[in-house]
Design goal:
This protein is an alpha/beta fold. The protein is 38% helix and 18% strand. It has a single domain, classed as Spore Coat Polysaccharide Biosynthesis Protein SpsA, Chain A (Alpha-Beta Complex), CATH 3.90.550. Strands 3-2-1-4-6-5-7 form a seven-stranded mixed sheet. Helix 1 links the parallel strand 1 and strand 2. Helix 1 runs parallel beside helix 2 and helix 5 runs parallel beside helix 8. Bound molecules: guanosine-5'-diphosphate and magnesium ion (MG). The site of guanosine-5'-diphosphate (GDP) has 17 residues, from strand 1 and helix 3.
């Protein structure tokens, strides 16, 4: 079987209401393109997997990969990228807050760019979250951007198009999905952003709270800063 051009990777944890409708929306958005979708279930306790297996009957491009233990969003994304067969991966949240209709634009831009561009990230212009979450996100993004200088206004947006080969070079740690711009720049690649839409969560519950996120962000930013100090750029590579 030939590898597709695009793999859409979706981490899901207890998203029984959102997962199957989202798979249908992805199929509609990428219709006519050469793609596969890889939903990664992170040991959900609800009916997420059975709803996906049901909808697979009408969506032959849907693959369902399962963790036997809950390992978190970043690990689920990594599992999906490893299972993906396409050179370009598009990630998006499994709760339906990202609009799959934005996916092809990011994916095509990356496909048509020189290989030095490794990621086109989404930037949510009108966040459809509570005021508390928006404020926490604004503060978190501001601190991270200033400390890491990663040129990214919104790293929490789940919608991103990334070259698979570059993603797999990055080290792994829990919550790395928020530091992909910094880690990709560290490898010497370039990144770009596009405005994308954002939708309210209409089913299920958020898996994060502001305090928990702030506490891990503190140690994560320190860790990423340390990684940055331990890497020097080799400049432009040339084979003589
Ligand atoms: N695989 C996996 N996905 C998770 C986990 N926690 C959150 N997610 C997914 O990550 C995405 C964003 O999480 P969400 O709870 O919507 O965060 P929020 O939008 O910031 O409130 C959703 O698709 C979730 O299903 C987890 O432990 N494992
Ligand atoms: Mg969400």
């Amino acid at each position: 079987m030939l590898a597709p051009s695009y793999s859409i990777v979706v981490p899901v944890f207890n998203e029984e209401g959102a997962a199957a409708p989202l798979a249908r929306e992805i199929a509609a958005a990428f219709d006519g393109m050469d793609y596969e979708m890889v939903f990664v279930d992170d040991a959900s306790l609800d009916q997420t997997v059975s709803t996906l297996l049901q909808v697979r009957g009408e969506l032959p491009r849907l693959r369902v990969v399962r963790h036997s233990q809950n390992a978190g969003q970043s690990r689920a994304i990594r599992t999906g990228v490893m299972a993906a067969r396409a050179p370009i991966v598009v990630t998006l949240d499994g709760d339906g807050q990202n609009d799959p209709a934005d996916g092809p634009r990011l994916a095509r831009r990356l496909m048509e760019s020189p290989p030095l561009l490794a990621m086109v990230g989404g930037r949510r212009t009108k966040r459809q979250d509570s005021a508390g979450k928006r404020l926490a996100s604004r503060i978190g993004n501001g601190v991270r951007k200033r400390l890491l200088n990663d040129h990214a206004d919104d790293t929490g947006c789940g919608l991103k198009a990334i070259r698979r080969e570059v993603f797999l070079r990055l080290p792994y740690f829990d919550h790395i999905h928020r530091y992909l711009p910094a880690m990709i720049l560290r490898e010497g690649f370039e990144i770009a952003f596009e405005d994308v839409s954002h939708r309210p969560r209409i089913t299920g519950a958020s898996k994060y709270n502001n305090l928990g996120r702030a506490l891990v962000s503190f140690s994560d930013v320190l860790g990423v800063l340390w990684l940055d100090t331990r890497s020097k750029s080799p400049g432009v590579l040339r084979e003589e």
